[in-house]
Amino acid sequence: MTCQRYCRIAPDQVGFCLTRLNKNGLLYSLNYGLLNGAPSADPVEKKPFYHFLPGTQTLSVGSFGCNYRCKQCLNWWCSWGEPSSSILKKRRQEKEQEAVKPEQIVKLCLNAHLPSIAFTYNEPTLWLEFVLETARLAKIKGLKTLFVTNGCWSKEALDTIGPYIDAANIDFKGFSQKTYNRMDAYWGQLLEMTKYAYKKYGIHLEITTVLIPGVNDDPKELKAMADWIARNLSPKVPWHLSRYSPDMAPDQEFAKIPAPSREQLLKAEKIGRQAGLEFVYIWAPGIDFNGGVFAKGDTYCPKCKTLAIKRSLWQPKILAVDKKGNCKKCTESLNLILR
User: Fold this and answer.
1) What kind and span of H or E run contains 308?
2) DSSP at 231
């Protein structure tokens, strides 16, 4: 009961995500302790988290497998494409499986003097057993656990790992079953479980939407999404608008879709702000932009408009924030979790 698909897995078969094997009536995790590469230190802003431990680095850790088949996926190689599929298939045939231990990940993080571990690249819910053990140990050692997720975790999964997750960036790919179907994603209970994670477990949330022209950029749908975030979560939950990169899309038809223009990105930002969202950010790399990147990443106080955090690419400079994460000038909450 890890994700919202609730696959019924036949004997000697795997679920949709390819990470669970039914062997003699018992489910086995095929990606327990299986890393898709060496863990590395990244700016936490790169995940992206702009309001959680800004200016720090996090230990990025990922595995293989996904419960989506997104046509625009940047990480298809470790999610659902090759070599991910072949690696997970091979694991089904191995009697002895080499696995990294949770203690090793935590020790690596501590030795690097990093404050957090980010489970990212593939869907972290799908190696829940390993992530849970690591997160439990991380909490004991005073480390934070971050999730970069599609939000398709089940209620059972959330009730298991929710107490150990400090922050999650959830990918809102669109705001309807129709839009998710276009991408070959899974709509499921995205909204219900996002709200549950926020209200029940107090997980710090940030939302990301990769803007794809003609697929998920309908103004009415973007408005509905922004309205939902503001009303069901909080106007202070950051909304990250990211530029779609057709040259990285695995699907041939999606590769023909042009990247959104500066004007399209600004239109989406305006929709978010008109809905009442106080922190809307744009990250838009591309060779067609002067300087290679168009970004709106500065954090302003929503009340007095003071520039609180200045960001140059992923490098923040904290200017007007007090120790509680409030505006230093007027004490308005900026929804910031500081180290």
Assistant:
1) strand 307-312
2) I
